[in-house]
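Protocol step 4 of 6: structure prediction from sequence.
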Amino acid sequence: MYRERLKAILTPAERKIFSHLTSPSKIQDYLDTLPINFEIAGETYMSPRRTLRAKKAHCFEGALVAAAVLAFHGQKPLLMDLRTVHPYEDHIVALFRSNGLWGAISKTNHVILRYRDALYRSPRELAMSYFHEYIESDGTKSLREYSAPFDLSRYAPEKWITATDEMHWLVDALDACRHSPIAPKKILRKLRGAAQIEIKAGDLVEWKVPKGFKGSSKD
């Protein structure tokens, strides 16, 4: 059983953290306590074990932690990739279901692209809820595609929950999985840009960007 295999590889400290996070809401609360991983020393794609030890996370790393905790409690560890138009940043969330409806757990530094209560009848409906939030500093509404739910239980828990190496292989696998368009191209060509008040709100951050930081901070 996947849940038992997962529990067997965790340390006592990891099991204690996971055991206390008994709902998607509690998982989100925990992720919200972690500072954003600005990758000051270089790009990272940490496993849940490394993220818990580093005590920081970006969206991919937070989604993996959430998926691991959901699996610990017997739910499917599912991810969704929200893909943008180049050159903007994708966003990744962990999916969960409650009473047949879909919700999402999200690690982000901004007021947008956050947690979704389980209100949505399909993954597409949930993905669409992010569309008008997904705006860039130039006013572009950049969300273009969303992935099908990506089931991490296809992989042994040792491969992604306690791995010591960067998880580039998993990022690539998620990027290569089936994605669906948000809307027809003829509709996307006619999008109205975001208003200045929306852009201003989108620039609010929870964790202060380090001085001199020049990377992306859309997470």
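Step 5 (inspection) to follow. The longest strand covers residues 91-98.
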